[in-house]
Specification:
The chain is mainly β and 233 residues long. The protein is built from no helices and 16 strands. It folds into 2 domains: 128 residues, no CATH class; 87 residues, Immunoglobulin-like, CATH 2.60.40.4070. Strands 1-2-3-6-9 form a 5-stranded antiparallel β-sheet, with no helix packed on it. A 4-stranded mixed β-sheet has the order 4-5-7-8, with no helix packed on it. A 4-stranded antiparallel β-sheet has the order 13-12-15-16, with no helix packed on it. The two termini are 37 Å apart.
Length: 233
């Protein structure tokens, strides 16, 4: 039996008053979290990062798409499970590709899992995003500048390799937490191919907790070139 619980959020859009709904659809031990009719950058491509602690879910909608100067509405969802029986709350956050990375609280919902489950591992089973219907040009071409991370996930150290064109000098690499806090940075990356090692520590040499981080590359003038997710085990 499926049950739907809804929280309605109202906010001003460029075309007037838009209505965004956040709700949960429960099916046995699985739940699908939805956010419908949400206005975003029309170049957005949203992945899903999930945390679960004490029956509280954080759904981070991570934007990995291009940058575009236009907006339209999306329907987003993520399906999770299996979940043990109990009462749950879920907070929804959008993580936008701006400089610096911006984490925006979208709203919350709650739901109840009635079915018993013997599983002890939460799995992200499906992520959905409706089409925006607007074409866009990315901020930069990967033929000009690229960033790769190996290994990813990592446990001790990882290599962040940046390949930049001849015009790219004085680039800055910043690493952010899932909530948008800058924890590590390096400047003065010049044209060509350069590899930077990261040991999973912050700028003060303190070991950072396991989790999801974002490596963001910008020009000396602050222009965003790209963002890559990295996972510390």
């Amino acid at each position: 039996m499926k049950r739907i619980l809804t929280l309605v959020l109202l906010f001003l859009s460029f075309g007037g008053l838009a209505q965004s709904s956040i709700f949960a659809v429960v099916d046995g031990n699985n739940v699908t979290l939805w956010q419908t009719n949400t206005e975003r950058n029309c170049g957005s491509r949203h992945g899903a990062a999930i945390t679960l602690e004490n029956n509280h879910i954080n759904w981070y909608q991570v934007d990995t798409g291009g940058v575009a100067n236009c907006f339209c509405t999306f329907n987003l969802s993520v399906t999770l499970g299996p979940l043990p029986a109990g009462e749950y709350t879920a907070d929804v956050y959008g993580i936008e590709r701006v400089n610096p990375i911006d984490t925006i609280y979208q709203g919350s919902t709650s739901f109840v899992i009635s079915s018993r489950s013997l599983a002890d591992t939460l799995i992200v089973q499906h992520v959905f995003q409706s089409e925006c219907g607007t074409t866009y040009l990315p901020e930069f071409s990967l033929r000009e500048t690229s960033m790769t991370i190996q290994p990813n996930p990592f446990s001790e150290t990882t290599d962040i390799t940046i390949s930049a064109n001849r015009a790219a000098n004085g680039l800055q690499l910043d690493i952010y937490t899932l909530t948008g806090k800058k924890v590590w940075s390096i400047t003065g990356i010049n044209a060509g191919r350069e590899t930077v090692k990261w040991d999973g520590k912050d700028d003060k040499g303190r070991s950072l907790p396991k989790g999801i981080y974002f490596c963001q590359l910008t020009t000396a003038g602050g222009r965003l070139l790209g963002t890559v997710k990295v996972v510390k085990l």
